[in-house]
Amino acid sequence: MKKSFSILRVLILITLISTVFLSACSKSNDGNTSSSNNSEANAPANEASAPEELKLKVVIPHFGGDPTGTLIQQQYETEIEAYMGTKVSIEWTRIPWGEYREKTQIMLTSSDIPDVMLVLGNDNIVKYGEQGLFLDLNKYIDQEENYKTFVDATENKEQYLMTENNQLFAFYDGYSNPSDVEPSQYAAAYRLDVFEKNNIKVPATQEEMYAAAKQLKALYPDSYPIGQSEQYLGYDGILNANHTSSGIYWNGTQYVYGPTEDAYKEGLMFLNKLYSEKLIDPAFWSDEIDQAKPKATSGKTFIYPQLWSGYVADFNANKEAGVTWTLAMTADNPTYGKAWKYDSEPKGKGLRNGAGLVISAKTKHPEQVVKLLDYQYSDQMIELLMWGIEGKSYEVKDGQKQYLPALKSAPDFVDQLAKMGVSASMSTRPGIVFTPQERIAVYTSIPDVLFYHDGKAQLENYYMASNNYGGSESISPNDRAPKVMLSKDETDEVANTMTPIDTYVKESAVKFIKGEMGFDQWDNYLDTIKKMGDLQAILDLQNSKVKK
Hints:
The chain has helices at 2-29, 71-84, 97-110, 122-130, 145-153, 157-160, 192-197, 206-219, 233-241, 262-276, 289-296, 311-317, 366-375, 379-387, 405-408, 413-420, 439-443, 462-470, 488-514, 522-532, 535-544, and strands spanning 53-62, 87-96, 116-120, 171-177, 186-191, 248-250, 255-257, 303-308, 325-328, 348-359, 394-397, 400-403, 437-438, 449-453, 456-460. The protein is of the alpha/beta class. The strands form four sheets. A six-stranded mixed β-sheet has the order 2-1-3-10-4-13, with helices on both faces. The chain starts with a helix and ends with a helix. InterPro entries: Bact_solute-bd_prot1 (IPR050490), SBP (IPR006059). This is Extracellular solute-binding protein.
């Protein structure tokens, strides 16, 4: 009798638990809606491991705009809960982008990390992953339906994304470019109103840039015609024109070290000529955009060999200054042909291993966290985060998405996107960033700016202009380099060898440009590099990783 009563009590208890669990699951879906009709969006979570409430601590960067409470962030949270089939509560910590690397490095070093965080640098991802700090995502690959699409689309994925032990520690930064457009965000810039006033030709070559700078210096002796907007960016623009680089790069055949090439030396000689004739700002090596903007709007700078294209809109928006800047393709060095664009973007889908979202190995519900992050790589979630909501931020016309004309024609178009929480604004980024960027959304989210080509400046989308006027020959081989990944020991070997060499090279570059080192010392410079470390061994290592 006693035994029968115990069995009955157990059965009643099981029934009660089942009733409560089913009721909780039902309530968690009540009132949740999704903008997508895809049945996957409403798929139930794994009931065996789904908690009644998924509580997460998340550390990510912010870029000036807070997505909290925005239309898209709210829709994101609604769709995530509908997809997960449970309530999701996230404790957000958003760190300003400029402080992010330093502050998160402290977290990693102390092993005090949240459930999810963005980690910068693949060396950090591999290092701390192998120490057991992060979840190995390859153990959950069967449930990563969306992320796996990006993994499989990434060239040489086994080496580029996985460790030697076949571990995958991050949801890496993804991109989707469903077009044939391969643009760059960077270009040369010229003070068009001053060029036109003085009948000076807008340069197409380095020698024309030199001639224009000489004319401008004679007309405006208190100026330094050529300036810099971000450290080393203008210098890289000169090197791109010479088809070389300031470090190790892929030249289309193999990995080489740019600072030992004759093309690099010629770039320094050109910059030395500009410096010796006071045509280039003495602060060329230290200026950032905060120092550059006042010079660009006060008649102190008239030429940028290379800058982020969006800055010209800022220059021109200064109504008090009343200046007119135009973009143009990077000035060519005819010896080498068409100048390479800086950071030309690829077609299709893929991943970049420079940053990624990691999951703490101590998180309470790993399967659920993997499921949540994987959903951010779905087409419907990318569309929501990058474009917003159909009818409120974008429309579909002739089968193509485009931002609403009324929104696009507003004087503060990008700011309006940011206020709605559309990630293409690049300042307000909802979700757990980095989420994959749909590049067409980014390309079309910017206001048109002046772009100079074929003897005239006209309002154009600078992404499209850089694609249309550059052509395939302007794409640097390094931007399509074979994707390789080094082990921790190999990464340490590269760092130990290259850090002192790269430091010496940068210091020497400044000295060559300023004339503190003569070019008759070039052979001594090359010998010093050889003595500092086995550079060739590092190049051989990099090249050994390339699939034949």
